[in-house]
Amino acid sequence: MIKRVDRYVGKAALLGIVTVWSIVLLLAVMFNVLGELRSTTETYTALDAMHFVFLITPRTAYQIFPVCALMGAMVGVGGLAAANELVAFRTSGVSRLRLAGAALAGTLLITLPVMAMAEWVAPASEQQARVFRLGKMIGQYIIGGPRGLWLRDGDRMVNIRQPIVALEEGRQTVQFGDILMYDFDERGSLRSVSRAERALHDGDRWEWLDIRTLSLSKDEIKQETADRGLWQTHLQPELVDNAVNRPQHMSIGMLWGQMQYMSANGLDNRIYRSNLYSRALFPGTVLALVLAGMPFVFASGRNQKLGVRLFFGMTLGVVFTIVNRMMQNLGEAYGVSEVLTVIGPSVALAIAAMLVLRRSV
Questions:
Q1: Is residue 148 domain-shared with residue 113, that is, in the same domain?
Q2: pTM of whole model > 0.90?
């Protein structure tokens, strides 16, 4: 009997989540299209804008899922409360914690596929979208993939292997690591190959660090090294900045690789470490949010309509998202432990929800 109740409540939560998530995602895509259409140019057309929005839809679906899971579970299980079915289950001896656990089990069934999509679909699609948009904006064909960004700069082909988001004076900046530049002459023959460990923009110009250049000619091959040098290019940092995949859009594997690279080169990897914790603990965050919504469901009974439950769910989800992001930003800026800034809010929310459910009559 109890197992049947678990399946029934879990199914109600699952159907509610899928329904709300689908509706909100459709609205989010429509708003993304309208927003992107304002950026159209002669080279970046309305069709290109819609293609860009299509590519970033997996990322959008992942970002909105926690709040949609909260609202959907409240709608699904709240429907049972409105029909007095939860009262019947309670009369049969099923505790509120047990009913909440059934709702969490249904939530987990959809959360795991969403997390898999965020690991193997969304990052690659996001990178393609950013590279596609940049290429259309500047009128050049740019390639993005596992080997970083490939772009043309006059007679040169540049491969930026490690785009890095770093912290400088409390704000995020984009730097480049492990850059290869192939310089061709007017006949298309390779003239030189240069490699730099890092490239920085000081506000006026690009600067190379730790450069090795291999110059090719008919008579000889000459190698040169330098600690610093100027990168003579018309490439604007804000344009390339738009093509760099942000840590919050990366998979766990990509974040781990960036952390290893930055540690090996003595760079601050707090941003990537914080997002790694956040990505790995995504299911826990979703379950904590859904659990926090259950006291509202059990307290409502038949007295609250669907709109009221959606309002409570949206308010709770938005407030938690703001607090969670604020804590994560504080941790990145001031080096506070990820245990407090990433794990802490979800654990505190879950504990508070369980205490309320246990004490409720």
A1: no
A2: no
Phi/psi for 226 (5° steps) reads -155, 150
- Residue 141, token pair as written in the block: 């064909």
Chain-centre distance of CA 39, in angstroms?
22
CA 127 to chain centre: 12
Distance CA 275, CA 245 (A): 13
Judge whether residue 361 has pLDDT over 60.
no
pLDDT tens digit sequence for 70-88: 999 999 998 888 888 888 8
What's the CA gap between 214 and 211, in Å, rounded? 10
Identity of residue 250: M
Cα separation, 185 vs 179, in Å, equals 20
Asked whether 210 and 176 are in contact (CB, 8 A), the reply is: no
Encode pLDDT of 131-170 as tens digits. 888 888 877 667 776 667 888 877 888 888 888 877 665 5
- Please name which of 120, 66, 65 lies closest in space to residue 250, comparing C-alpha atoms: 120
254 assigned to some structural domain: no
Residues 60 and 55: their CA atoms lie apart, in Å, by 10
What is the spatial distance between Cα 246 and Cα 130, in angstroms, rounded to a whole number? 10
103 and 144 inside one domain: no
Q: Which residues pair with 208 in a beta bridge?
A: 199, 229
Residue that terminates a domain, selected from 192, 211, 245: 245
